């Protein structure tokens, strides 16, 4: 498969899903509730925000303003369109930029499935710590190994921590964990099916074969092995 074909598939998958992460409605509501601002004037920042849905939900729920930073232009466009539809354009701004260059701290900092912006989890947490204003909160959500991966899974996902190491990395970066949870296998199953559905909709034999391959990699490889942690943190 060429890089161009892969790009088309990834874009098709992203276009058809609410969140580009194993995130149920229930967990999205819970995460937002736990991120409740402690003061008037708190601002949210989502780095690698995808279609911006979680950021907008947070800003809408608490009537606050925010910024989303997303490198993918099509995702940024979707986010802006949704913001306009929901009357949020004056409060929530989407920047089509490399989030690694963002320097303005905020009280609520989100980074979901995009720790690779800075490198490994430790580097991501250090960056989030620099960007979280004193007394604020950060949401870091990313992959970890629940059990030892086989060679094929390790090849795809690389070096990941386990959940205790992820929590320790957050502490080492200067955070106190407020809440730690992981996506359930049911959330993963829904996410994987919804993700593949976008590719199936392309309707070509090559797209179908790519979807088949991903399904097999999931079911016989990383299902139950790769976890997705949700860490709500505050600067220590
Ligand atoms: C797995 S998706 C998660 C998207 C979103 N946070 C969500 O949960 O739906 C990762 C996102 O990070 C974005 N991304 C990757 N590197 C980036 C960078 N350097 N700057 C900004 N966005 C980046 C990708 O384009 C993609 O939309």
From TrEMBL:
CDD domains on file: AdoMet_MTases
Domain Methyltransferase: 45-136
InterPro entries for the chain: Methyltransf_25 (IPR041698), SAM-dependent_MTases_sf (IPR029063)
Signal peptide (UniProt feature, chain positions): none
Example GO biological process: methylation
Keyword annotations from UniProtKB, A to Z: Methyltransferase, Transferase
GO molecular function ontology, one term from the record: methyltransferase activity
Superkingdom per UniProt: Bacteria
Protein name from the UniProt record: SAM-dependent methyltransferase
Organism taxonomic ancestry: Bacteria, Bacillati, Actinomycetota, Actinomycetes, Micromonosporales
